[in-house]
Batch of 2 targets.
Target 1
Amino acid sequence: MRGVVFECASRTTCSLTTDDAGRDNSSAPLFVSSVDRLQMARDTFHVPVLEREVVSYLSASAGGVVIDATLGGGGHASALLRAVPDVRLLGLDRDPEAREASRQRLEPFGSRVRVIDATFADLRDVREREDDFIGAAPVRGVLMDLGVSSHQLDDGRRGFSLRVDAPLDMRMDPSTGLDAASVLARLDEEQLRTLLARHGEARFARAIAASIVSSRPRTTFELVAAVERAVPPAHRRRGHVATRTFQALRVLVNDEEFQLREGLAAALDVLDLDGVLVVIAYHSGEDRVVKDVLAEAASGGCRCPVELGCVCGAIHRVSVVKASAMMASAEEIASNPRSRSARLRVARKIVP
Ligand SMILES: C[S@@+](CC[C@H](N)C(=O)[O-])C[C@H]1O[C@@H](n2cnc3c(N)ncnc32)[C@H](O)[C@@H]1O
């Protein structure tokens, strides 16, 4: 555990910090740039989910700027730029391969696009830092299409997929932070149990934690084997037995809980009046955070009885566009199975 602190500030937020400013050079980054490979992968990098819906919610952005806070392969971004001729797009992604792929894909849109290296938790800084691009234009939309791209999952070197044997890395930005194997080497059994329980492994969290500690996996298949040893076949759910363990580890390695809360708050701040925040979540924990943050921004903390209307002076910053999350159609799920778990939520900023 030398130099690593695992903390749970609340029931929903755990984070991992190191005493060397979050950098661990003990394992070399796996990222190796290759323009040829990116060009080949351009069209298969990621199929955007709920593309029609996303573009339609952002279509009133003409004359303004939209921030795509999760560029991925630039699929949503290019669809928007095609649909709304005079919108400009500031795109960010923490993954260098995603930035490179989207730069290439969005090149035909010329000066209407800028691609930068940032995380969405940094959105407020980005607004200031990129002032020469945004200028006086209103920020009319922010898109957050959460989680990992198909490219990250499918790329054998990244360690995100339980179906491809690879070193356990899982960092979206491979140049910073601890990789997943280093995290597993440092967490003790109780810390692992807490992490797994938080991400839905209620029954077998203890057994999986013990199995991981006894083997300290360094590859994806070693981690799958550790989970399989802990969960008896008769008790395995639908889907792969190690799915939730992989997800929990990925969330911790990339500090996703912190990123999401900070990113949502910052997105609501940087939007101009009437701007829309569009968020797609891919697992229930993530969607719950999005739903709660938007509900809180809509109510401003007001608890006045509905019949009375709000008399407490709370500031209702946003209007939630639909109470329930929107999901992909059966047709979309059939053509893109990764859309099955997508939950889309939209809020409009109604107070400057
Ligand atoms: C589902 S993909 C987005 C796909 C994209 N909408 C498209 O159409 O190609 C999610 C992307 O968000 C990036 N990402 C995840 N968390 C991030 C964060 N906190 N800050 C910046 N980028 C992040 C990932 O690296 C990944 O490329």
Target 2
Amino acid sequence: MSQVAIGIDLGGTNLRAAVFAGLPDSADALLVHRESVGNDRSPAVIVERLGVLIPELLQRTERGGLRIPVGIGFAGMLRGHHGYVANSPNFGWHDVALGSMLQARLGERYDVGIYNDVNAITYGEFKLGAGIGASDILAIFVGTGIGAGAVCDNVLLQGANNTATELGHTKVVIEADARLCSCGLRGCVEAYVGGKLLQERARKDLDTWASSTAVDLAGGVQNVHPGHLDAAAAQGDDYALELYSEVSPMLGLAIANAVTLLNPGRLVLGGGVFSRTPVLRDHVLAAFEAAVNPPAREGLQIVEAELRDTGGLVGAALLASGH
Ligand SMILES: [Zn+2]
């Protein structure tokens, strides 16, 4: 019987967990659990909740074992490779030794590993999703923000400080009045094409000087989201098309530069915004095709992410298991 491993996705909204028994061959879980992160997000409270939840989940599967791998995909910027959280706007954390706190709480029966959430998703896709059979992949997720991960020569690219592949924070505008990003700097591609900031900008434009059929589709300016902008763009709406003609080349260029740099065999696309903005995606890919270095484009397959909600759970569990 194969060893069990636990995967956890600690995101801005939900805490999800799964117990796997078939890794590295199967992403099927014995059990999947989901709860809200809630408002009390201090490190001590989160660690205590995980400290209770993890043994409880294992008990429910009626599996035993020693040195059980527990991989956590965390929505935040890490520092180094020992589970140290440098900063997480989602949790309001700065300099939190999450890995060692949780390891101390759980004790020696468990082996805790902390990973960037997008890296965990990328690794899950690489091993058991859209990346199966490839040795080099680049995965890009356009949701609330823009995240990316890469596997080069079968190894997850994490970087010296564990902050590699932050594609969303690569700069695409350098003027002093470039748009402000959630990271605190200006001109990042996420400030233009990340779902949250794109939506905020569109609502502000439509509330002040612009008009668009997206407002009618949404039933009011305050409801407009990128899906409405995309439906408006599909109908030839001037505002939506103008906005797209400004921002989609920025993401297209960022992706093209990443592909030129890394030369992946497969480009995996996913994320909540990309899945409901087909027009934006077409514009981004057109800009990508125009800008990518042709030798890096040769043989590159562009595919959809496959694992959806479970990618991060599978990936974190695989990484913690050493697979
Ligand atoms: Zn940024």
